[in-house]
C-alpha cells in the first residue's frame, strides 16, 4: 500500500466550540474535524478525502474526560480509546464498552484514536458502535447555534455519514446507568487480534426480572452487516418477557440472521456474514444471560 503525500490545505486549531463551528460552516463541507486522525489522515493520503481546511479540535477544553452525572456516564468526544479501556469508572459500570474499545485496533492506535472519532467515522464495522447502541447511548452535539442530543441509533445515517449538520461537532457521549441484573457482551469476528478489522460484531445486553428470572429487556446490536451499525429489534422482541432457553435463543439468532443485509467483499461473502451473525448472536445472548444472572 502506497500512501501519497498530503495535498495542500488550511490548518486551524480553534480553542472553542464556537470557533470550530464557524470554521466548519465557512468552508461549507470542505472542512473536517481532526481528533485522533487515525482514519482521516490515511484517507487524505489515499486521496479518498480532499479538504480545504483541517480543523484540529484537540485544543478545546472539556472534551477529554470521563465523569459520572446523576443517572448517566459522560464521555468526552476527545477521550482516547486507551483511556476508555483504563477507566475504573467505565470498567465498573460498562465493561461491555471496555471490551469493545479494547479490540479497536492495536495499542498504538488506541493511544491516538478517540471514542468520538470512532463514532463520527460512521464505519459499519466500528467496534464501539454496537456496544454503545445496546447501552442506549446518546450523542451530545454542539455548534455556534447551541446544543442538541440525538439517540445514537439515529446518529448513524449511512456509511461514513452521520446526523451532524454543517457546523456541528460531537462533543460528548451520554450513557444511562444500567438497571439491576443486567449483563452485556461484545463479540467480534475475527477475534484473533485487535488489528483485525471486524467482519461481524455483535453486542448483546440482557436484563432479567429479579423475581421471575425471565428476560425483562433485551438489546442486540450488529456491526459490519448493514450500511450502518444497527439494532436487531425483531430479535430483541423474541427475547423480551421469556425465559431464555435454547429454543428462544435460537429463534432470536434466526431473527437477527433475517434482519441483516451484508455485502460480499474481499474479506467475506454476504452468505458467510449472515451465518456468522446467527452464531455470534446465539453466543452473545448466552454470555450476556450468564453475566446477568451473576449481577446484583
Please, could you describe this protein's structure?
There is one protein chain. This protein is α+β, with helices and mostly antiparallel strands. It has three domains: about 10-55, 2-Layer Sandwich (Uridine Diphospho-n-acetylenolpyruvylglucosamine Reductase, domain 2), CATH 3.30.43; about 65-175, 2-Layer Sandwich (Uridine Diphospho-n-acetylenolpyruvylglucosamine Reductase, domain 3); about 180-295, Enolase-like, domain 1, CATH 3.30.390.50. Helices cover about 35% and strands about 25% of the residues. It is built from twelve helices and 14 strands. The protein has helices at about 15-25, 40-45, 80-85, 90-95, 95-100, 105-110, 115-120, 130-135, 150-155, 235-240, 245-260, 270-295, and strands at about 10, 30-35, 55, 65-70, 70-75, 140-145, 145-150, 155-160, 160, 170-175, 180-190, 200-210, 215-225, 230. The protein has a five-stranded antiparallel β-sheet. It has a four-stranded antiparallel β-sheet with strand order 11-12-13-14. Strands 1-3-2 form a three-stranded parallel β-sheet, with helices on one face. β12 (about 200-210) and β13 (about 215-225) form a beta hairpin. α5 (about 95-100) packs antiparallel against α8 (about 130-135). Mean pLDDT is about 90; it is low at about 190-195.
Amino acid at each position: 500500500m502506497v500512501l501519497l503525500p498530503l495535498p495542500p490545505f488550511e490548518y486551524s486549531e480553534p480553542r472553542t466550540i464556537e470557533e470550530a463551528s464557524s470554521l466548519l460552516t465557512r468552508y461549507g463541507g470542505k472542512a473536517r474535524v481532526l481528533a485522533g486522525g487515525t482514519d482521516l489522515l490515511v484517507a487524505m493520503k489515499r486521496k479518498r478525502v480532499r479538504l480545504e481546511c483541517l480543523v484540529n479540535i484537540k485544543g478545546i477544553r472539556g472534551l477529554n474526560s470521563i465523569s459520572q452525572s446523576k443517572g448517566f456516564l459522560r464521555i468526552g468526544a476527545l477521550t482516547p480509546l486507551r483511556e476508555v479501556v483504563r477507566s475504573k469508572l467505565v470498567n465498573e459500570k460498562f465493561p461491555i464498552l471496555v471490551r469493545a474499545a479494547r479490540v479497536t485496533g492495536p495499542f498504538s492506535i488506541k493511544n491516538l484514536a478517540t471514542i468520538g472519532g470512532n463514532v463520527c467515522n460512521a464505519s459499519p464495522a466500528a467496534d464501539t458502535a454496537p456496544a454503545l447502541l445496546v447501552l442506549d447511548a446518546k450523542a451530545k452535539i454542539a455548534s455556534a447555534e447551541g446544543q442538541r442530543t440525538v439517540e445514537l441509533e439515529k446518529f448513524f445515517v449511512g456509511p461514513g455519514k452521520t446526523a451532524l449538520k454543517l457546523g456541528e461537532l460531537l462533543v460528548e457521549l451520554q450513557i444511562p446507568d444500567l438497571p439491576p441484573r443486567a449483563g452485556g457482551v461484545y463479540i467480534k469476528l475475527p477475534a484473533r487480534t485487535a488489528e483485525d478489522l471486524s467482519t461481524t460484531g455483535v453486542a448483546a445486553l440482557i436484563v432479567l426480572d429479579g423475581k421471575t428470572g425471565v428476560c425483562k429487556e433485551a438489546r442486540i446490536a450488529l456491526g459490519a452487516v448493514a450500511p450502518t451499525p444497527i439494532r436487531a429489534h425483531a430479535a430483541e422482541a423474541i427475547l423480551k418477557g421469556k425465559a431464555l432457553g435454547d429454543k428462544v435463543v435460537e429463534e432470536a439468532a434466526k431473527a437477527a440472521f433475517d434482519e441483516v443485509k451484508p455485502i460480499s467483499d474481499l474479506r467475506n461473502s454476504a452468505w458467510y456474514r449472515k451465518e456468522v451473525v446467527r452464531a455470534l448472536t446465539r453466543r452473545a445472548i448466552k454470555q450476556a444471560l450468564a453475566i446477568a444472572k451473576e449481577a446484583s
